[in-house]
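User: Hey, quick favor. My workstation is busy. Could you predict this chain's structure for me?
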Amino acid sequence: MFMEWYWALTILLGGVVALLLCGLPVALAFFAVNIAGTFVFLRGDIGLTAMPIEYAFSISKFTLVPVALFVLMGEILFQTGVAFRAIGAIDRLISRVPARLSIVSIAGGTVFSSLSGSTIANTAVLGDLLLPNMLKRGYHPTLAMGPIMAVGGIAMLIPPSALAVLLASLAERSIKDLLIAGIVPGIAMAILFVLYVVLRARSNPALAPASEQVPSERGWARWRPFIVDVLPLFTIFVVVVGSIFLRIAAPEEAAALGCIAAAIVAACYRKLTFANLMKSLRETAKINVMLLFIIAGSLTFSQVLQISGATSGLLQQISAWELNQVSAMILMMVVLLFLGCFMDQVSMALLTLPFFLPIADTLGMNSTWLMVMMLIAMEISLLTPPFGLLLYVMQGVAPPQIRITQVYAAAIPFIGLEVFVMAILVLFPSVALWLPNLVR
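Assistant: No problem, here it is.
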């Protein structure tokens, strides 16, 4: 069936967006549009007969193995409670700084990000553990909630990031490069968050209590919790990232080693039981079944877009604009930030990647740079009003008197800091790419 590319694009993309806005799950939205699009653009029944084969082929790729294994690694640490030990150790270590508990939340959240890879778990755990105490001590809600939400999104960048693996797998590009490329931007954001909190607390002491109870331990008594409860957890990060960085293991093998390391650490703390191991496996299975359905729908959707002529037509239109790499990147980030106001991260990635990747290839753009920028844009969208996911996670763990407008206000300064990091990476791609280049 002949149809102008812009009508095909409008019908296919608009159909997915409309179904998502109606509340249909992402996987089912893609499946519905794929069935209609395949019937219309791929010779009716013949296309529908071939579609199950495409679904099976799209999820039988070995490159998707790290997604399941990174989820399992985080679940083991979460269900055994091992990851929570780091928060108390960091709390006892940090002292004599303005807004100490806000700094603890950033440091603890960064460590937790390198272990779990889950933005939701990061925010929920830190909010549940630290927020009530911070508000009780007199912290302004902005300085109490903002750092917790902001550092929660870092889990999307710092390995092990299941979304990074998913994004690289869908793009059929290097998982190793993307995982390593997220380290520098993630750490840079954490440092900026700390500097912002310290400067805000010093410029406006009313935001944080003038004096807090600080750990009284000195010497070994103060450092012992850090050495006992934090350093062993870093061995998991070292096993995963170090094995990739030193070319000892491929990402798939590194993810398997990370699961083994997580189980060994939990066993050393005597927290690994048959019951919580089975719960970790069940939760991993639930998450991965959902992801595999989404992946199958997304890859088939990309093929329907190509068959309909929507992808090639859009590329020709963009080529006529004669954009350079920087202007094209800015345009793509604006699109993602707009979508982030009302759409979840997986949906954003699946909708935009079929368009962004061909544009990047046409302009000679580094695909790792593009995907790091996409991860940052999706991280920002977690905090973007009105529907940023972490805003509602925070409201869910916050005391009842906290209004959603206060949660919005707490997130806005940190959105600005993340946009600043994004701007730096747009102008200087080498900031994200130098570390992956060292591994080659």
